[in-house]
Amino acid sequence: MSPTRSHLPLSEEALGLVAARFRALGDPARLRLLDALMQHEASVQELVSTSGLAQPNVSKHLALLRREGVVARRSEGNRAIYRVIDPSVRTLCEIVCGGLADRLARHLDALPSRSPSRATSSAWLATRSRR
What we know:
Elements: H1 12-25, H2 28-39, E1 42-43, H3 44-51, H4 55-67, E2 71-76, E3 79-84, H5 87-110, H6 116-129
Antiparallel strand pairs: 1-3, 2-3
Helix pairs in contact: 5-6
């Protein structure tokens, strides 16, 4: 199979950048923050409240996401307001959640009966994939 224009071999430097992006997105706490920020921009305190994480952890994760160019920060009085600035993050989340929803649906269909908790899990993933 020959490489296509959309998938040419990557240089070592490019592979390092891709790996850094996946590491930034590969933490459940950061994904929780991004999930909230994909709904609307938010202050650190709002993210602390919605995520259940401690303020120092939220700030640490946001700093890493900012260094990676995933989120941006602006000041509003004495508050720091964050928002997602990389549109590929939303696309990537839709792809991954859509794939998980499909996989979960196949597994659930293979089970003898569908309980409400399994249906709820499948619906949740399907909702995430449509964002």
